[in-house]
Amino acid sequence: MAGKELDGFHFEQMHGKDRVRVARVWRARDGRHFMVEWNVSISLFSDCIAAYVRDDNSDIVATDTMKNTVYAKAKECTEQLSVEDFAILLAKHFTSFYSQVSGAIVKIVEKPWERVYIDGQPHEHGFKLGSEKHTVEVFVKKSGAVKLVSGIEELSVLKTTKSGFEGFIRDKYTALPETRERILATEVTASWRFPDISAVQLKMPNLHFLPVNISSKDNPAIVKFNDDVFLPTDDPHGSIQASLSHFWSRM
Amino acid sequence: MAGKELDGFHFEQMHGKDRVRVARVWRARDGRHFMVEWNVSISLFSDCIAAYVRDDNSDIVATDTMKNTVYAKAKECTEQLSVEDFAILLAKHFTSFYSQVSGAIVKIVEKPWERVYIDGQPHEHGFKLGSEKHTVEVFVKKSGAVKLVSGIEELSVLKTTKSGFEGFIRDKYTALPETRERILATEVTASWRFPDISAVQLKMPNLHFLPVNISSKDNPAIVKFNDDVFLPTDDPHGSIQASLSHFWSRM
Amino acid sequence: MAGKELDGFHFEQMHGKDRVRVARVWRARDGRHFMVEWNVSISLFSDCIAAYVRDDNSDIVATDTMKNTVYAKAKECTEQLSVEDFAILLAKHFTSFYSQVSGAIVKIVEKPWERVYIDGQPHEHGFKLGSEKHTVEVFVKKSGAVKLVSGIEELSVLKTTKSGFEGFIRDKYTALPETRERILATEVTASWRFPDISAVQLKMPNLHFLPVNISSKDNPAIVKFNDDVFLPTDDPHGSIQASLSHFWSRM
Amino acid sequence: MAGKELDGFHFEQMHGKDRVRVARVWRARDGRHFMVEWNVSISLFSDCIAAYVRDDNSDIVATDTMKNTVYAKAKECTEQLSVEDFAILLAKHFTSFYSQVSGAIVKIVEKPWERVYIDGQPHEHGFKLGSEKHTVEVFVKKSGAVKLVSGIEELSVLKTTKSGFEGFIRDKYTALPETRERILATEVTASWRFPDISAVQLKMPNLHFLPVNISSKDNPAIVKFNDDVFLPTDDPHGSIQASLSHFWSRM
């Protein structure tokens, strides 16, 4: 955030527009249509303390203007481009067009519209929503420096075997039995930093599938379960986050 | 619902268990695994007015027992079966096992776990979550009569052209221009009734993609848009529901 | 729905507009402001089969027109009115203004904006969002007949004692112990039908707070719990639905 | 995150348990009950690279153990305590009980259960869910150093007048008219850092209430609106984030 000293305090702020939804269609000469749907968030760093303390908005880019800019820039893109290129183009616009804007963050989530196939043939203008989403976040400074992170989210995967968990710490709070056979499932949120791949960040919560084991000391009749009936549950869940990076990327 | 006269009023009630989540794995001899994940809701119609007016639960099937039954029945299914067959099996159990249960409704939503392909080959035990969901709702009476409705939900489709809307009523509340070219998109919820197909029900809200048209009388500089940049929006949206049925299915 | 015979099938349809969000402010002469925020859904029953089979929209009320009507009618209400009165007014407009509309359903959910109190005094124009929501659903026929249902939703209540569950059926699927002491909690959805109160409908799922009991045969060190630490859970949950009605209301 | 060099890469990871839901009841001698419901997330920083590269879990605290610890510690709290104190107590347990844990982050969201009043009197054991939530996030290091942030979230407020927006930058992307009269509404997420208040962070997205203005060049009949009928909308929305801090808190 852009910092400022104010009456003995340090004041930081950014402002922007979230959830600007835009779809762009490109029509090729052969009749095929290409389309994307993007959900865009913009945050600008700028010196606009006057708006907070003196009712002076003369340095303020209205968030409605930011929204219009998304549509105008989408229009200007007459050739299909990647969500990464659009995010950079948009962020660079704000830092170069407005003198008081020192930095811009643009985040975009792309909806997974996929071309429909009919009888094995790609349809010219029909699409269907798929599953995992492509994400991008770019930070552009006034100097032109670009920090770009791409990613995916909402990718759920599962395997029914070849996962175990044993040998962990056992103490007075431990009740979990060891296991050499379990369902392993997660919803992957992954991101990676450019140029080339300089760093990878992974967030992989457990999607738990607990082996069902109904027990009651008074009721031995309930059937025995042996790792074939599972209780999927969301509350609570294990979480694992990790990142891997080149040394030079952290300098 | 099961009706009852009570102090001059008509009283109806049902009780059950919602959101019983169960996963079932079947392992074939050739090493391949098959799995399903179901979210089950159960409602029982029974004469249990004593529980409401006399603190007498002796006719009450505990909803915890219903939950256990889902797991026990899933376990008993040693061969893979369709979600329809499991719903019928479960509902029939409740109406036949408990004398006071006169009817049972079982609804199941199946999560779209799909087998993963690696280098074009199906993986033995790896799965990935897809998009639209398969649904089933079955109503079984004590007599054994079955009413079965299958369906899909959350199937989003879109086409970028060959849709229009013109010739509709124009009155003093009408501002919408006619169009011969627009994006048409919807999230389909469809269901159909058996045996054979006796009725089809469709719910198809518009997923609106509005042509962008930024206007300001003071600012002619904003670029002209011609049906290539769109604003996707959820609030408000048009809704269309329709059903088609054989005469005999309505008798 | 409005029915129609079509090539040997029975065809029914309705169309409308969902999620029309509108806020209305009324300003009293003494400086106080009053405001409501409503989320309106409209469904019209009409004979518009020509639109489905002959590309003829001449009997179609555009859903965009329905949306505009909500705003125009809200404007015409120069005096504050109840959400019930607005729903009736709106539904009656559609059945009387359009000759081909035989019936209209209007559903409204009112957001619980509450006046703010500062130092015990009501603020003139400040509001804060509360919790449970007021709902209304009205069905108006061409004849002018009105069926009105009011309600509340998202009202969560809880008591920490004086609830039990015992004496229920015990069979081979039962593992639940009896209890004379438990937390009882639910999220109430209630509705009632007019004139006077002719019927009441209640939907009261259990919000389960399970007594915590961590057990492990190998680990006796985990502390004993006695009904003071609970696990709140959403999956699965018991559901209870009931209605009470006058006989004459069911004729 | 806890860093580690690994085959020429820098590797960081943390693991924990999210969405551990716990309720705690305290019973006073005078018959009054007190209760809280907390949703707890735990992240531990520890040196457990062996688990990633050598299948060695001997340094791993199972996330199931973390969950049990929440319940055991809640049980040990025989006197009611603040959510801040519970978060600190829990985080300090992990850093002191496990030698390999170098730091712990505990986040808790408290559900706003409020005592019910009947005829103006507080009920002994009845509660009702309110609106905004209390949050806390604490970071405890092995050394015992504590960084504590408290906050609220989901507090929606609105005023119907005395807000304007004028004098902002007008450029070729600007279409927004200036206004001296509008509804101002936001959903506040606020947090503050201890000891005393060393820093305050505010996140205040606009909840837009757009003045309705239906226009159509062909249809002048639609009523004129003058700042009394509004369209509430979520997509897109302006976002404002700011923080204020003492200099010494940033050292």
Could you name the key traits of this structure?
homotetramer; 251 residues; mainly beta; Urate Oxidase; 3 helices; 48% strand; extended
Strand content of chain A: over 45%
Main sheet of chain A, how many strands, which sense, barrel?
9 strands, antiparallel
> How many discrete domains of chain A?
2
Question: Would you give the CATH topology of the largest domain in chain A?
Answer: Urate Oxidase
The pair of chains with the biggest contact is: A-D, 62 and 62 residues
Taking all Cα atoms into account, the compactness measure Rg of chain A is 25 Å
CATH superfamily of the largest domain in chain A: Urate Oxidase
Mean model confidence by pLDDT of chain A = 86
Low-confidence stretches of chain A: none
Instruction: Specify the CATH architecture of the largest domain in chain A.
Output: Roll
Share in helix of chain A: 10-25%
CATH class of the largest domain in chain A: Alpha Beta
InterPro entries (chains A, B, C, D): Uricase, Uricase_CS
Subcellular location (chains A, B, C, D): Peroxisome
Protein name (chains A, B, C, D): Uricase
Keywords (chains A, B, C, D): Oxidoreductase, Peroxisome, Purine metabolism
